[in-house]
Each structure stands twice: as structure tokens, then as C-alpha cells.
Write a structure and sequence with these properties.
26% of the residues lie in helices and 26% in strands. The longest helix is centred in the N-terminal third of the chain and has 18 residues, at 44-61. The strands form 5 sheets. It has a 9-stranded mixed β-sheet with strand order 2-1-10-9-11-12-13-14-15, sandwiched between helices. Among the domains are: 48-179, Rossmann fold (3-Layer(aba) Sandwich), CATH 3.40.50.980; 397-502, 2-Layer Sandwich (GMP Synthetase, Chain A, domain 3), CATH 3.30.300.30. With 506 residues, it is α/β, with parallel strands linked by helices. The protein has helices at 10-14, 23-28, 44-61, 77-88, 102-111, 125-132, 180-190, 212-224, 236-246, 255-262, 287-296, 406-414, 451-458, 487-491, and strands at residues 33-37, 40-43, 68-72, 92-96, 117-120, 137-139, 160-165, 175-179, 202-205, 227-230, 250-253, 277-280, 301-308, 313-318, 334-335, 339-344, 358-364, 373-381, 387-392, 397-399, 402-404, 419-429, 433-442, 470-473, 501-502. A hairpin with a 2-residue loop joins strand 20 (397-399) and strand 21 (402-404). Helix 5 (102-111) packs across helix 6 (125-132).
Length: 506
């Protein structure tokens, strides 16, 4: 029997506390598996009890309604229970990356107005304690087994349920407060509620739970009473093994993860035929990579989803049917139901014609702000409404008055048979403003590529002012755990005084 009663009133559920999402499964099918972490299962009944223990622990420590509680942890039973327990109390967890230093955590604590009580994995407790300062309390380990002192569940509505952070690849991370109402609306719009007569689907979560994609995916599966296999840290071999062992049917990947899985030496011998749907996003996905994946898993439906933290994840999607049209590969699809997009000239604020590049704006009931939201993403939209992204507006290369997205150049370079990976950035130049820099990772056994060859390869496909002018070969690109490259880190790949090749300035 669940310690929490199920909420069956539709009107109340629309504005309910997110802690309600496990109530039905915990009450009606407590033995159903909710989470599998490191091959250890946690049922819905056990998750509800663990949530209650953590609610008791946090309340005893002094957490109150309205508090923002820093949570420095990988995905798993504890982080899930703490997230729901804080929400139960009317507080919100500020979800933080355990890999961050004390100084980085201190910044997040400050900008998200965290209280002096936090929860951390064992490896992150010292950094969080330093970030919170003297007098703070950092809890790790398990929740208090005594659950008699748990307060009644707080309301939901417009109160903060979660604090997520933007990735910070082009600047400092920013906190995004997400209300219970927004989360519940998102969850109820995209997933049917728990049905005890429906067997649980099995989803593999290898994106961190402190990322909007991981957290939203987790909440969706819990609401539906499905099973989530959690990989706290991504490993391609572990991903393949988990799919085979637990007969995983669906999952979300960022393109770098997908590439590592497809390149893993054991992929041909591990049974992944249970997969029926694969969604991907969070970074640009090369067309060749997606075509490889579709050949590997011909029975799976692929969906390219596009969104960001401020939009609570995806607001456009390229459907499985669209993936069968080669012209669509590279697009992030069309707006999802309830979402509108338009492409705006960032210099003048006017909507551009179809096919022209501009800043993508979105309007949806599921964004965290009302009205049109300027995403900061460069994109074009074709006559049929398909969106083709071209990088971040802040990453726009401005060369001699011509502006364009680095993704346009990178996509062409990726088609070269000797190039395994590439990042393109604008490098400061006193004459042209910026020059086009390309850092490339060569495939094993291939010869180094000269600038002349790279420019010749690109010349038939993109305009002359977009051709690479500075190139450097590197062993690997600086991806973070979300599969994204920091622009600042990418620029550092190019030494200020160089032996790398430089092209013409004209």
C-alpha cells in the first residue's frame, strides 16, 4: 500500500504537485518496477516509501515550502526520491552536475537562491559544502527511516517544482524555474496516465537527470507507470548491455552518444532488437550518423527532437515517417501540437521569408515564459514548415559583414571521408572581424588534411565567404556530459600564435 493516496480528480491533477506522479502506480501495483540502477530494481512501492523517508529527512533538517534545495547527484533512486520529496514539502530541487567544482557550484547556488540545506552524492558533498559556506548542512547517504513526521503534501500550481540550468556552452549557466503547473501540463499532454492493465514499457535513460531531457523523460515514465533503466554515467558498452539484458524498447541519445554506440566493437554481437523507438537531440546530428543508426536498427522509429531548458524540452520533432525522406534528414521537423515558431531577423525584429536564416522564436503554453520566446537559435524554415537549425545566435560567425552559422560549414566538412568529427568557430580577426576556424578529428589511419583540400571539398557546396580559413587537427573535441561543445573551449583549440594553416583574407 502506497503511503500517498492516488489523485484521481482531473481538474486537481492539472495543477497538482509533481510528487503525485507515482501515487497511482504505488497504490495499485506497488511491485511494478519503477527504476533499475546498476542492475538493482526499485519498485513503485519502494520509491514511494523512499520519497517519504526523504521528505521526513528534509523537513527535519529545516527545509520549508518555497526553499530551493541544491541537489548534486547522478540519476538514480536517491535523486528521484529527493526531487519528489522536496516537491512534497513545497520546496524545489536545484538540479546540479556532480562534476562541477566548488566555485562553479557556488555560482549556481547564488543565482538560484538556494537555501543552506543540500543533498549530494558522496563525491560531491565536499564541493557543495564549500559552495554553501559555513553553517550549511549537506546530506548524503539514505533518507531517514523514520517517516512519522512527514508534513502533509503541499499544493502545486504556480509554485516552483524544479530549478534547472541552461548548459552554459556559450556563456554562464542560467537558472530556469519550472512550476508544478507547467510540468504537469507537459506530462499530461505527452503521456497517458498509469493503467494497471498495461504492461510497463522499458526506457533507457543515459542523459543526466539534471538535464531537462533526462528529468522530463524520467517524470513522463513515472507518470505512466513505466520502467526506467538508469545509466548514471554514459558508457557505450554499458548502454548496449543494458538494452539487451532489460529488453529496452526506447531511449533518448545525444548524437555523440549515438556515434560511440555505433562505433563500439561489440555492437554486432549484442542483441538490441528490442528497440522500437529512438529519439535524439540536444546537439546537431550529422545526417550520415542518423543514416548509420537507421541501418543498424531498421525496426526502430527515429525522432529528432529540438528544444531547450526554457521550453521544457522539445517544441519541434522530425517524426519517424519524416526520417524515410532523405531530404528531411538534418531537419528537426515541424512544431509539435500547441507550439508555434517563426524566424526573426535579429537585427530588425521582422519575420524573414521562408528559407532565410534568422533567430527562431517559439510560443507555447509549455514554455516557462508567456508570449513569444526568443530561443537564441539560428534556423531557417522551409515552405512546408520544417525547421533546419544552424547553431546558436551567439555563435554566429560575422566575417566581413557576412553572417552565417558554423553548423553550415561543419555539416559539409563532416561529409569528408577522412573526418571523424569537427567543430567550426569564428576566430577574432582585426581586418575581417572574424575568420572561419575548423578543428578536425581525423579517422584512424587517414592522412592529415591541408587547408587547400578542405576548402576545395567545401567549395561546391557553400559560399566562398564560409570556407575554412584556419584549421587545426586535434585528437578529440571538448564535449561535455550533455554532448555539447563549449564555444570558449573550442576557440582554445586554436593557439594564438600558430603553425596551423591560414587561408586568404579576401
Amino acid at each position: 500500500m502506497s503511503p500517498f493516496p492516488a489523485d484521481t480528480d482531473t481538474a486537481a491533477a492539472a495543477a497538482a504537485n509533481i510528487a503525485t506522479i507515482v501515487d497511482s502506480a504505488a497504490s495499485l501495483d506497488p511491485d511494478r518496477v519503477a527504476l533499475i540502477v546498476d542492475d538493482v530494481t526499485c519498485s513503485y512501492g519502494e520509491l514511494a516509501v523512499e520519497t517519504r523517508r526523504w521528505a521526513s529527512t528534509l523537513a527535519a533538517a529545516g527545509v520549508r515550502a518555497g526553499d530551493h534545495v541544491p541537489l548534486v547527484d547522478w540519476g538514480g533512486v536517491r535523486s528521484t526520491a529527493v526531487t519528489l520529496a522536496a516537491a512534497h514539502l513545497g520546496a524545489a530541487t536545484a538540479q546540479m552536475n556532480p562534476m562541477l567544482t566548488a566555485a562553479e557550484l557556488s555560482l549556481l547556488v547564488e543565482v538560484s537562491r538556494c537555501c543552506a540545506i543540500g543533498v549530494a552524492t558522496t563525491g560531491g558533498q565536499d564541493s557543495l559544502a564549500a559552495a554553501l559556506g559555513s553553517g550549511a548542512m549537506v546530506i548524503h547517504g539514505q533518507g531517514d527511516p523514520a517517516t512519522s513526521s512527514v508534513p502533509e503534501r503541499a499544493g502545486g500550481g504556480d509554485d516552483d517544482a524544479l530549478i534547472l540550468f541552461t548548459s552554459g556552452t556559450t556563456g554562464l549557466p542560467k537558472p530556469v524555474a519550472v512550476s508544478h503547473r507547467a510540468l504537469m501540463a507537459r506530462i499530461r499532454a505527452y503521456r497517458a496516465p498509469f493503467d494497471p492493465d498495461r504492461p510497463p514499457a522499458v526506457t533507457l535513460m543515459c542523459v543526466p537527470s539534471f538535464h531537462v531531457g533526462g528529468m522530463l523523460g524520467l517524470l513522463l515514465t513515472l507518470y505512466a507507470g513505466d520502467t526506467t533503466v538508469v545509466l548514471p554515467r554514459f558508457d557505450a558498452g554499458q548502454w548496449l548491455w543494458s538494452v539487451a539484458r532489460h529488453r529496452v524498447t526506447s531511449g533518448f541519445l545525444v548524437p555523440t552518444m549515438m556515434a560511440r554506440i555505433l562505433d563500439h566493437p561489440d555492437i554486432a554481437t549484442i542483441d538490441t532488437t528490442s528497440l522500437r523507438s529512438i529519439s535524439y537531440g540536444a546537439a546537431a546530428a550529422p545526417g550520415e550518423l542518423i543514416e548509420r543508426a537507421m541501418r543498424r536498427w531498421p525496426d526502430a522509429g527515429f525522432a529528432n527532437v529540438f528544444g531547450q531548458t526554457e521550453t521544457l524540452g522539445a517544441y519541434t520533432s522530425l517524426s519517424p515517417a519524416d526520417h524515410r525522406d532523405p531530404r528531411r534528414i538534418g531537419s528537426v521537423g515541424r512544431p509539435l501540437p500547441g507550439a508555434e515558431v517563426k524566424v526573426i531577423d535579429p537585427a530588425h525584429g521582422d519575420e524573414v521569408d521562408r528559407g532565410e536564416l534568422g533567430e527562431l522564436w517559439v510560443r507555447s503554453s509549455q514554455t516557462v515564459s508567456s508570449g513569444w520566446f526568443a530561443t537564441g537559435d539560428l534556423a531557417r524554415q522551409d515552405t512546408e514548415g520544417y525547421v533546419f537549425p544552424a547553431g546558436r545566435l551567439s555563435e554566429t560567425i560575422s566575417r566581413g559583414g557576412e553572417k552565417f552559422g558554423p553548423v553550415e560549414v561543419a555539416e559539409v566538412l563532416r561529409t569528408h571521408p577522412s573526418i571523424a568529427d569537427v567543430v567550426v568557430v569564428g576566430l577574432p580577426d582585426p581586418e575581417m572581424g572574424e575568420r572561419v576556424g575548423a578543428a578536425i578529428v581525423l579517422r584512424p589511419g587517414t592522412d592529415d588534411l591541408g587547408l587547400v583540400e578542405l576548402r576545395s571539398w567545401c567549395a561546391p557546396t557553400i559560399a566562398a565567404f564560409k570556407l575554412p580559413e584556419v584549421t587545426v587537427s586535434v585528437d578529440a573535441l571538448p564535449y561535455n556530459e550533455l554532448g555539447k561543445i563549449s564555444r570558449a573551449a573550442a576557440i582554445e583549440l586554436f593557439p594564438p600564435t600558430t603553425d596551423h594553416e591560414q587561408g586568404p583574407r579576401r
